[in-house]
Amino acid sequence: MEEILLKYMADFTSLSENEKREIYESLQIDEYIKGKYLLKQGEFSANKCYFVLMGCVRQFYIDELGKEVTSNFFTEEQAIPINNEQTQGDVSKYSLVCVEDCILVVGDVGSEKTMFTKYPQLETMIRKMMEINLGEIQEQFGEFINSSPEERYESILRKRPQLVDRVPQHQLASYLGVTPESLSRIKKRMLK
Predict the structure, then answer these.
(1) Which of 37, 57, 59, 154 has the highest CB neighbour number within 10 Å of its CB?
(2) Is residue 131 scored above 70 in pLDDT?
């Protein structure tokens, strides 16, 4: 786990080895069991952000008809973005739940500001990581609205094949915007 974080610091900053070690030692790393909610829809938004070292976290919401809609999965080496300060105190529009046992770096606004003051390059690193994350989300969204369900599934197989075996099929179907039955038919067609 330590290697992953030190790699990110090396890739995005020119911090000294001592600075990297100090930052690593000050991080909060917690373990969560499968089924643990990090945030629930309708609760006041937390001032927390997470970085997945191990495991899978699902983002979903309950729509007006009471149906669960999966909007994202976060797996190893992915950041789960913090709610920005403008929305603190608002209720969350989605839930975050661990699909597997997870090990996460946990950050909060207060400690983040302190760290950024002490290590300005850390803020640059986080900004660069978030820019990459935003670019990926924009690409996924553009691809999603311009593709058929079968093309979406093919994209998952190319870009995130581990999801097929790691998440329940009804959640994967929801993420793809299809019913579980439709996903089964897509899989059968692709096997031929």
Answers:
(1) 57
(2) yes
